[in-house]
TrEMBL record:
<dbReference type="InterPro" id="IPR013196">
    <property type="entry name" value="HTH_11"/>
</dbReference>
<feature type="domain" description="HTH deoR-type">
    <location>
        <begin position="3"/>
        <end position="58"/>
    </location>
</feature>
<dbReference type="GO" id="GO:0003700">
    <property type="term" value="F:DNA-binding transcription factor activity"/>
</dbReference>
<dbReference type="InterPro" id="IPR028349">
    <property type="entry name" value="PafC-like"/>
</dbReference>
<dbReference type="InterPro" id="IPR036390">
    <property type="entry name" value="WH_DNA-bd_sf"/>
</dbReference>
<keyword id="KW-0804">Transcription</keyword>
<keyword id="KW-0805">Transcription regulation</keyword>
<dbReference type="InterPro" id="IPR001034">
    <property type="entry name" value="DeoR_HTH"/>
</dbReference>
<dbReference type="Pfam" id="PF08279">
    <property type="entry name" value="HTH_11"/>
</dbReference>
<dbReference type="InterPro" id="IPR026881">
    <property type="entry name" value="WYL_dom"/>
</dbReference>
<dbReference type="Pfam" id="PF13280">
    <property type="entry name" value="WYL"/>
</dbReference>
<dbReference type="InterPro" id="IPR051534">
    <property type="entry name" value="CBASS_pafABC_assoc_protein"/>
</dbReference>
<dbReference type="InterPro" id="IPR036388">
    <property type="entry name" value="WH-like_DNA-bd_sf"/>
</dbReference>
<protein>
    <submittedName>
        <fullName>YafY family protein</fullName>
    </submittedName>
</protein>
Amino acid sequence: MNRIDRLQAILTQLQSKRIVKAQEIADRFEISLRTVYRDIRALEEGGVPIGAEAGIGYYLMEGYHLPPVMFSNTEAHALLLGAKLIENMADQSVDTAFQSALYKIKSVLKSHSKESLEDLDQRIKVVSNTRTAPQTFDSHFLADIQQALAQHLTVTIEYFSSYNTKLTERTVEPVGLLYYNSDWHMIAYCLLRNDYRDFRVDRIKSLTFSKTFKSRSSDTLQNYLDSLARTEHLEEAVIIFDKEILRYAAPQRYGYGFVSEEDLGNQVRMRFLVGSTMGMAHWLLMYTNAVTIESPFSLKEAVQKLVMELQEHYLTESQSISTED
C-alpha cells in the first residue's frame, strides 16, 4: 500500500471509534510507531484536526465532517456475505438494523457496483442447521443486549430455566455475547447468584434496562472463557476419529468443547475440554468403531456403560419376542 492510500485508510480508521491507539494503526498496516507519528503529522498538516490524549491515542476533533465513505467491490461483497450470515445467525432486531445499514452502503456505490452486488446477492445462500427441537421462545433481544453492553446497563430478564422448566426473574450485568451450539448466549454477572452465568438468548422472554454499572477490571468475555478453561469441572478428552466419518463429526465438534486437532494420515486426533463425559459418550456412540478414546478413562467407562445398557435392552427385547413365538 502506498502512503497516500495508507493516509486515507488511517483517516477512515480514526472515524471508526472514539480513540485509536498508535499501536493499533501500526499493527494494522505493519509499520513502525515512528511511521505512525509521521503519518499523523502529515494528516494534521493537510488540515485534518486530530486530537491526542497522552498515553492513550488519537481522535478526530468534534464537529469535523468527512466526505461519504466509498467502498470497493471487494469490501461491498464482504458486507453482503456478512448480511447473509446475520440473516441466519442473528435475531430479527439485529437483522433489521443491518439490512438498513446495507441499503445505505448500496446507495453510495457506483452503478456497475450496484449491479454486480445485486447479481451476487442471488448467488449466495446460507442454509441454517436443522434443530433437533423447536426453541422455547423466539429471540428478539440481541440488539438490546448489544446496547446494554455498549452503555454498561444492568438488565432485568425473565428467563426460562430448562432444568426446572420455570420462569425466573434475574437482574444481571452483561459481560458479552457468545455464539455456540447454534445459539446465542449472554454471559453476565447475576446479582441473584453473585456469580457469572450463561443465559441462552432464545430463553429470555422479556428484557428491560435498568441503571448503569461500573465494570470490574475482570469483567471481560476473554477472562470468562479463560476461567472456563481453568475450572476443575472441565476435563481434557483425546479422541481419534477415522477420516471417513469426519464429514459428520466435524460440524458437531464445537458443541463438545473442541480445542485442537492433529492429522494422523487416515485418522485425526482431536482434543476437547469436556464438562460432561456422559454427554460426550452419547455423541461418540453413534460413530461406533470409527472412533477410539485415548483419554480419559472415565469417558471410556461412560461409553462401556451405554453399550451394556443397549445390549441388555435389546437382548431382553429379543428374548421377549422369542417367548411370545
